[in-house]
Amino acid sequence: MTDRKQMGAQFYIDDHALLYGLIAKAAYENYGELGDRASKLATQLYARERGSRMAKRALRDGLPLTHETYRMYTEWEDERKQMRVENLSFSPTYRMNGTYCVWNETWKKYHLERYGEIYCTYVDKTMVRTFNPDNELIIHSAQSLGGPGCDFEWPGLSYEGEEAFREAAKKKREKKEIAVKDFLYHCGHTLSAMGRGYAMELGREESDKIICRAMEEYKNICGEEKAAAVIKESEQDFNKI
């Protein structure tokens, strides 16, 4: 039997994108516009829980809930260097642009683009606001929303130059062991939060239908072992840090 660490290594960004897209697709195909509305609210629930965990860890470590701290405590890292990001400006406001996004490419591959629009409309802004309501993220464009790139501006965050930016990136790497989660964890949280969100909006029976349909399709694409691992991972308390 594959242990948790070995199984976790089999998951990456594409698994997370695919799973989310299949869940939101099942909601729409089962319940139409009501399903879409429930997906939006469930996505925000998922994002709030992520932002809250990040804030709890930062406060536990005695750090202020600034944009810089948010970026240090973000729960994922592109260890395989699949994403492509360029810095547009360091000051007076830090601004970055993603030129290649694995989430978006996965949604395109599986014809799930309309559900990626929901994800990118709500996830990052909700996480930032939950981490600290005084913080703001401006999304000038996103590939999943039809933009040429993922152009994010962080008001209140600036760096003196590239060296200062690299130093901040080093601090983030130092927090990896306590801040970063693997994508099996993120898939489990997505399944849990979306299921709970649908139950609140549509009812438990309707939520179960959505999740069962999505997981059957995920299993057909990714295999029974990975589907079972996501289900098992989803059973934990995602409000714990």
Rg from alpha-carbon coordinates:
18 Å
Order of helices and strands: HHHEEHHEEHHHHH
Structural class of the secondary elements?
Answer: alpha+beta
Strand order across the biggest sheet? Answer: 1-2-4-3
Mean pLDDT: 97
Helix content: 55-70%
Main sheet characteristics: 4 strands, antiparallel
> Alpha-carbon distance between the termini?
27 Å
Indicate the proportion of strand residues. 5-15%
Low-confidence stretches: none
Number of helices: 10
Inertia-based shape:
globular
Number of strands: 4
Describe this structure in words.
The protein is α+β, with helices and mostly antiparallel strands. The protein has helices at residues 4-8, 13-60, 67-73, 102-109, 113-131, 162-174, 176-179, 183-202, 204-222, 224-233, and strands at 84-89, 94-100, 138-141, 150-154. The protein has a 4-stranded antiparallel beta sheet. Strand 1 and strand 2 (94-100) form a beta hairpin. Helix 8 packs across helix 10. The longest helix has 48 residues, at 13-60. The mean pLDDT is 97.
